[in-house]
Design brief:
Elements lengths: L6 E10 L6 E6 L5 E6 L4 E6 L6 E7 L7 E6 L5 E6 L3 E8 L2 E9 L5 E6 L5 E6 L4 E7 L3 E8 L6 E6 L6 E5 L4 E2 L1 E2 L9 E3 L15 E2 L2 E3 L5 E6 L5 E6 L4 E5 L2 H5 L8 E6 L7 E6 L5 E5 L4 E7 L8 E8 L7 E6 L6 E6 L4 E9 L1
Parallel strand pairs: 18-20
Antiparallel strand pairs: 1-31, 2-3, 3-4, 4-5, 6-7, 7-8, 8-9, 10-11, 11-12, 12-13, 14-15, 15-16, 17-19, 21-22, 22-23, 23-24, 25-26, 26-27, 27-28, 29-30, 30-31
Length: 359
């Protein structure tokens, strides 16, 4: 059934409380029923779903490691390690040992607040970004050791988010300079793509392992807060303080076939649907785009193919007013269930939702 023809309703499953300050970020574990959340209260909470009751409870509170706000969290692809980025300028690596989570490594180097952390698809690389305008690439070594292999200085302002491509070693970063930057290095296609108001092309130095920006595209007119990819990895969605979400596309076949770099191009812009800053966007495996914004609402967009000559566009399928009492900072689809969504807010709560079909 065409998603654009399907009636949808967002059903609240459970409200998770425990954080004593705003909740910034969420991360579903890719191999288990765990959900991680991080907050301005300097802690990370691990939530687990009971197999018998299907309700969620707090399994662990990770504290006394970070000394300031924990801004971002991300599980490794194996689900065994959790990375947490903090305003204390460090990134902590946690591992479940026995029944307890232990901090097994602390990554230092950023000059100030670390805003985001992301693992690549194989779990061999970790990216962090900071208010110091830099993006750091870390190589994961045996024994929970991490080595910084590159420091990228392409942004001119606070870098808000880093996110790896779902199938290729391609890294994207969002910034306060209204941009998303792109880099590559010898032997691997590693790109951080930045959308700014002007064009900028960087090239690879084939004689070294240095990273270089290879493309800069025109795009958003204000801070870019987040991005996400469709399941195939040939489309990307970005959200911004300019109240728009933008869809971008590339040629995956060219990239994966080793035929060279396939540039990202603007596909369409969805405007007029938000009247406050859009902080979070996430594309489900089923093709549903969810957004969280400063108007306390969650919106869902789907592809529409109704009588279009030039190809599909996207339309607003559902808006959930007052999803939270304050700003919605993060929306994240689960891995295991296509229509299970978690959201986090300035109101200090996390909510688990199910997007259900109605007839």
């Amino acid at each position: 059934m065409d998603l654009s023809e399907e009636g949808l309703e967002l059903k609240e499953i459970q409200r998770l409380e425990g954080h004593t300050d705003r909740v910034w970020s969420l991360a579903w574990n890719p191999t288990s029923s765990l959900l991680a959340s991080c907050s301005g209260d300097k802690t990370v909470r691990i939530w687990q779903r009971s197999s018998s009751t299907s309700s969620w409870h707090c399994k662990a509170v990770l504290e006394e490691t970070h000394t300031r706000t924990v801004r971002s969290c991300a599980w490794s692809p194996s689900g065994k390690l959790l990375a947490t980025a903090s305003f204390d300028a460090t990134t902590a690596i946690w591992e479940l040992i026995g029944d307890d989570f232990e901090c097994v490594s602390t990554l230092e180097g950023h000059e100030n607040e670390v805003k985001s952390v992301s693992w690549n698809a194989s779990g061999s690389l970790l990216a962090t970004c900071s208010r110091d305008k830099s993006v750091w690439i870390w190589e994961v070594l045996p024994g929970n050791e991490f080595e910084c292999v590159s420091v990228l200085q392409g942004h001119t302002q606070d870098v808000k988010m880093v996110q790896w491509h779902p199938t290729m070693d391609v890294l994207f970063s969002c910034s306060y300079d209204n941009s998303v930057k792109q880099y590559r290095t010898l032997g691997l296609i590693m790109i951080i793509e930045v959308f700014v108001l002007y064009s900028q092309i960087w090239a690879e130095d084939g004689d070294s392992d240095d990273w270089h920006c290879v493309q800069t595209l025109g795009g958003h007119t204000s801070t870019v807060w987040a991005l996400s990819f469709n399941p195939e990895g040939d489309k990307m969605v970005t959200c911004s303080d300019d109240l728009t979400i933008k869809i971008w596309e590339t040629d995956n076949i060219t990239m994966q076939g080793g035929e060279g770099y396939a540039p990202w191009k603007h596909f369409c812009t969805l405007s007029g649907y938000h009247d406050r800053t859009i902080f979070s966007v996430h594309w489900s495996r089923e093709g549903i785009i969810a957004t969280g914004a400063a108007d306390d609402a969650i919106r869902f967009f789907v592809e529409s193919k109704d009588g279009l000559i030039d190809g599909p566009l996207y339309k607003l399928q559902l808006k959930k007013e007052q999803a939270h009492d304050m700003d919605v900072n993060s929306v994240q689809w689960s891995f295991g269930e296509n229509r299970l969504l978690a959201s986090a807010s300035d109101d200090g709560t996390i909510k688990i939702w199910e997007l259900v079909s109605i007839t």
